[in-house]
Amino acid sequence: MSALPENLKYSQSHEWVRLEEDGTVTVGITDHAQALLGDLVFIELPEVGHAVAIEEECAVVESVKAASDVYSPVAGEIIAINSALEDEPELVNTSPYGDGWLFKIKLAEGDDNGIAALLNAAAYSETLS
Amino acid sequence: MGKRTPLYAKHLQAQAKIVDFGGWDMPLHYGSQLQEHHQVRRDAGVFDVSHMTVIDLVGERVKEFLSYLLANDIGRLTQRGKALYSCMLKADGGIIDDLIVYYQKETQYRMVVNASTREKDLAWIIQQAKPFGVHVCFEEGDVAMLAVQGPKAREKVLPLLPADLQQEAANLKPFFACWNQDIFVGRTGYTGEDGFEIILPVAQVEAFWDAILAAGIAPAGLGARDTLRLEAGMSLYGSDMDESLSPLESGLTWTVAFKPESRDFIGRAALEAQAKTNHAVLVGLVLKEKGVLRGHQAVYADTGEGMITSGTFSPTLGVAIAMARLPAATAAEEVSVGIRDKRLPAKIVKLPFVRHGKACIDLDAV
Question: Does B132 share its domain with B175?
Fold first, then answer.
């Protein structure tokens, strides 16, 4: 398994979060999560415009063998989804931190949008051991 | 720690992801379940199925015994090596197990039953065999079993067989077996592809496994085995059938030989009575929208609410497929399936979904 990108934040439920320059965040699932799930064959993404709360179930990733919920690591509004995953769900397997991103969120205003509580790479790595 | 087959170390060597399967530590996949699935459909793959139970039945009255024990008619086996698929039933028609039996000679048959049902099967068979004086010999860790499956499986395996078996194995018709003192080769399988199932002594299996891999046959795990068998419309004991269900309710009516009427078998009376009723049925489903069908999802038909017994995403067809049990047969072409908070339409289709690498259903009509 590849090393965890240092520039990302992580949730205990195996989502990653990248803070973009424009203040929005991009969300995906970690390499560890995709490896556990195995070959992904279907991904159900949230609707653009949907408001999400912290730890709200907002997507489903399905491998040949199992379905798994994806939780929003932060609070805000879904502003984009990765529609390439509709035809190529395997992008999450091959590029979990790149082309396999799931959705983008515009963070809710204020200090309680969840971003501060996320783990850095070292802390997430510890939860895996 | 679960029970391990003689190839456990070889699986680790091949980077297997090991899972518990009915008390056995078995390979789920060796990296990618999807790749292994396609490998078997397009070329050749090898499965370690040493967890399955091999039972040899020997005695003067063994044919008479099997004629009574099995729902399918052992009398259909008249040629050396011929195989028969059958259910073994309780008196009430419930399925104790499904199995394959091979005719070796008038006084000897070989049977292969499931791993998860080993103890109850043996207890049942030994009990039923007593009045017939049939000797029940079961291997206790002495033999291993490999399934080599795929369009190129036979041509790749034949050169690896002992010289005295090669010609006979090359000439085997589907659903026949041949053997020498050590090795038993059946042209059977659980994938819908051509291939062999090979039973051999534990002492030989590691070297044979290495030779198979060197011949360009890739290891495939239980994950691919499950998607392959489901595409092939083959039932899995414990999922699609169990002791509370009869073959008529499990899509296995074709395996029950009601003729000749003179043949008595365990469960016959119960099945004859049930056949006159509006009993549950097993059907094939193809999901008409994106998503994945899974076991235990609710199925809504015009004859009532049923349940998916096995479901998956079909790697060959690129759609979700399933077997589902409905409370009674329906004339409708469609049902709906409860997937999370939605009800999605699914088309009822005839099994199998895939055979010999080709789709058996018209996806354009789904």
Answer: yes
Domain that holds residue B338: 280-365
- Closest residue in B to A40 (Cα) is B34
B157-169 pLDDT, tens per residue?
A: 999 999 999 999 9
Contact criterion met (CB < 8 Å) for A38 and B29: yes
B291 contact residues in A (CB cutoff 8 A): 42, 44, 62
Q: Are B141 and B202 in contact (CB under 8 A)?
A: yes
For A14-59, the pLDDT digits (tens) are 999 999 999 899 999 999 999 999 999 999 999 999 999 999 999 9
Number of A–B residue contacts, CB under 8 Å: 37
Is the pLDDT reported for residue B29 higher than 90?
Answer: yes
Number of compact structural domains in chain B: 2
Single-letter code of the amino acid located at B160: L
- In DSSP notation, B216-237 reads TPEE--HHHHHHHHHHTT---B
CATH 2.40.50.100 matches A9-108: yes
Nearest in space to B33 (alpha carbons), one of B190, B207, B175, B226: B226
